[in-house]
Amino acid sequence: MALVVCAAHISIVMAQEKIVQTAGRTQLGEFAPKFAELNDDVLFGEVWSRTDRLGLRDRSLVTITSLISQGITDSSLGFHLQEAKKNGITRTEIAEIITHIGFYAGWPKAWAAFRLAKEVWAEDTTGEDAKAAFQRQMIFPIGEPNTAYAKYFTGNSYLARISSEQVPIANVTFEPRCRNNWHIHRATKGGGQMLIGVAGRGWYQEEGKPTVEILPGTVIHIPANVKHWHGAAADSWFAHLAFEIPGENASNEWLEPVTDAEYDRLEQTK
Q: Is 140 helix (H, G, I), strand (E, B) or coil?
């Protein structure tokens, strides 16, 4: 039986994700159609999409290491640094990665890579400090970037498994403005989810109902088969414990994102 955990519904057995790429056809479709096809359909559509064998974060790490080692620091590296950030590699991690590469691939190559990396992670200059400060507010770990289910979140989230015995429990951390998509915890009997605020300030909303503020100690009971979302306030990091309630034929249905317009209206009314 697969283990299902918290807001992201992480499972030990993950579905293979299909990567969609159109850059080849957009830039070279008429000039080199076969190359464009191989780039979009084989390199990204097949190789990068084999996430059941090697995750996107690890593939990004391998790719940027290979490019820097060859001295390729043009737009190709820039693109893959952007993807690495999307796939969960943080500012602190990329600095350590390039430093490590420099000892093996060459110092000038590391310098060139750092120039691009500084641009990609420029907005995160204080992000690690804020993350460290938030970690000091709670006893549970922030955990690792929630890359496996990043496509169901707006913004960056982190996941730390707290317990896999009896009732699966995880601590989910959201950066400011981060929230998950509308979703439904399906079950024919029992099921649903319970959230307990741990640190920071966040929101919970069921479809058609007012938004509920979540503070440390706030308990949210989410019935099965109810459409809802939850995430951080615009001005605060936020973390909650998520408890999966056992149920029959339990599954998670991910739906549309909470748009910026919807979210901003919510913030303005609070």
A: coil
**Under CATH, what is the fold of the domain 130-268?**
Jelly Rolls (2.60.120)
The 10s digit of each residue's pLDDT in 141-158 is 888 888 888 889 998 899
Give the chain's length: 270
Q: CB within 8 A of 196, min separation 6: which ones?
A: 217, 218, 219, 220, 240, 241, 243
Name the helix (H) or strand (E) containing 230.
Answer: strand 228-232
The identity of residue 263, as a single letter, is Y
pTM of full prediction above 0.70: no
- Provide the residue type at 138 as one letter: M
User: What's the CATH number for 54-123?
Assistant: 1.20.1290.10
Do the Cβ atoms of 193 and 243 come closer than 8 Å? yes
Helix extents (H) in 40-147: 56-69, 75-86, 91-105, 107-120, 127-135
Considering the chain, tell me which residue range(s) the CATH 2.60.120.10 domain(s) occupy. 130-268
* pLDDT 10s digits, 5-51: 333 333 323 334 567 777 778 887 788 888 888 888 888 888 888 87
